């Protein structure tokens, strides 16, 4: 009986202990839930720095440009929470944009017209304008709206100085538009906008620089002079090399009196070449080298006429056959060419005794000798009379003596 009572008591005590433990677990869970709900009610503000302009990020695998999302600006009172992991490095886009495609000029549809246009271009370059215009007119008969033929006609008339017709053909190319004319549309528009270039417009735009003269000291006989002539153009100036012409006139110093005479081109040798090619004036200057070779003189010629040496040159620069600049070196050479030497003036008291003004190299002859100092009488007929058996010539008033009959008649 006592054992049963003790077992019941132990069971009841165990149940109470388990109930107390359960109640404690419930209380702990309730407190935890209450604290979590209290923490959830607190507003947390995270501050992040936002750049003024969004960066473009290139994805390393897909190579696709991605713009990251931008968050709102935080308030001033909220703390700044720094991320635990470093942000990925922002790589800016480095791929350049492709250049714009130039306007492609369409080809001539008709092969006969295309051949005629090519032949006309070759004739225009060789300055055969009549042949070029004739071939272009034939090309327009088969292709009346061909941009190449119309533009070439404008170039031909512009080169000939017929600007009204040139403007008419350029306007026709302009009316075709970019679809039919392509790049020629822009060229024709530039011609119509800026006008036609005159040769004299190049004055002060294309000029001659000071030439550099080098005399070869190693030449024992004769002379060899190398002259470098700089031709300068203003920035952005369009210069056609084939329209430029450089003329160099050399002058020599002869004899003890040092007379300045033009160089004898039959004996001297002149060679020229461009030092800088192509002639595009990209740096604003192109160099032309002229080599003037004066061969050794013959001793007899040198004794009679005197020694001959290089003195200088005059350089003339022409554009489309119009003189736009000239330069003489030495500079006094230009004065000597424009102002000839005056004749010497002598006074009577300075004349030496026996001076003959008609022939100063010979002394005066005495006037009492016959035929000296007197004019011949041309009224007398000193020819011998004809022989009596010679018939008179009816074609002439005077007969011809036999000793003059074999002379050629003039």
What is the radius of gyration computed over CA atoms, rounded to a whole number of angstroms?
A: 53 Å
Number of helical stretches of at least 4 residues: 8
Q: Bin the strand percentage.
A: 15-25%
Per CATH, the class of the domain at 206-338 reads Mainly Beta
Annotation, overall tally of beta strands: 11
Low-confidence runs (pLDDT<50, min 5 residues)?
A: 69-75, 340-349, 393-397
Write up what this structure looks like:
31% of the residues lie in helices and 18% in strands. The chain is of the alpha+beta class and 410 residues long. Strands 3, 4, 5, 8 and 9 form a 5-stranded antiparallel beta sheet that branches. Strands 7-6-10-11 form a 4-stranded antiparallel beta sheet, covered by helices on one side. A two-stranded antiparallel ribbon has the order 1-2. A hairpin with a 4-residue loop joins β6 and β7. It is elongated and about 210 Å long. Residues 69-75, 340-349 and 393-397 have low confidence and may be disordered.
């Amino acid at each position: 009986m006592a054992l049963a009572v003790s077992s019941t008591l132990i069971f009841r005590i165990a149940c109470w202990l388990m109930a107390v433990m359960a109640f404690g677990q419930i209380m702990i869970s309730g407190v935890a839930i209450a604290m979590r709900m209290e923490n959830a009610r607190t507003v947390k503000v995270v501050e992040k720095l936002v750049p003024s302009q969004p960066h473009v990020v290139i994805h390393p695998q897909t190579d696709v440009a991605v713009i990251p999302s931008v968050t709102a600006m935080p308030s001033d009172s909220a703390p700044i929470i720094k991320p635990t992991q470093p942000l990925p490095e922002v790589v800016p886009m480095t791929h350049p944009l492709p250049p714009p495609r130039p306007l492609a000029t369409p080809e001539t549809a008709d092969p006969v017209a295309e051949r005629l246009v090519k032949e006309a271009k070759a004739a225009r370059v060789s300055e055969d304008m009549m042949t070029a215009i004739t071939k272009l007119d034939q090309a327009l008969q088969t292709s009346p709206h061909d941009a190449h033929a119309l533009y070439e006609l404008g170039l031909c008339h512009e080169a000939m100085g017929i600007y009204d017709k040139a403007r008419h053909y350029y306007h026709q190319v302009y009316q075709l538009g970019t679809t039919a004319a392509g790049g020629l549309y822009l060229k024709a528009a530039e011609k119509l906008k800026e006008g036609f270039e005159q040769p004299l417009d190049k004055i002060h735009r294309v000029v001659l620089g000071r030439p550099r003269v080098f005399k070869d000291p190693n030449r024992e006989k004769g002379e060899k002079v190398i002259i470098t002539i700089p031709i300068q153009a203003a920035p952005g100036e369009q210069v056609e090399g084939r329209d430029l012409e450089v003329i160099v006139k050399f002058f020599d110093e002869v004899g003890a009196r040092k007379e300045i005479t033009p160089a004898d081109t039959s004996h001297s040798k002149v060679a020229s070449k461009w030092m800088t090619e192509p002639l595009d004036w990209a740096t604003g200057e192109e160099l032309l080298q002229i080599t003037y070779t004066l061969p050794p003189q013959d001793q007899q010629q040198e004794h009679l006429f005197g020694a001959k040496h290089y003195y200088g040159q005059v350089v003339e620069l022409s554009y489309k056959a119009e003189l736009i600049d000239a330069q003489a070196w030495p500079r006094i050479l230009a004065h000597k060419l424009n102002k000839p030497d005056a004749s010497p003036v002598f006074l009577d008291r300075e004349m030496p005794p026996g001076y003959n003004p008609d022939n100063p190299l010979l002394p005066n002859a005495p006037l009492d000798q016959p035929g000296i100092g007197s004019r011949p009488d041309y009224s007398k007929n000193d020819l011998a009379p004809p022989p009596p058996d010679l018939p008179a010539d009816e074609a002439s008033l005077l007969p011809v003596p036999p000793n003059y009959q074999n002379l050629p008649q003039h």
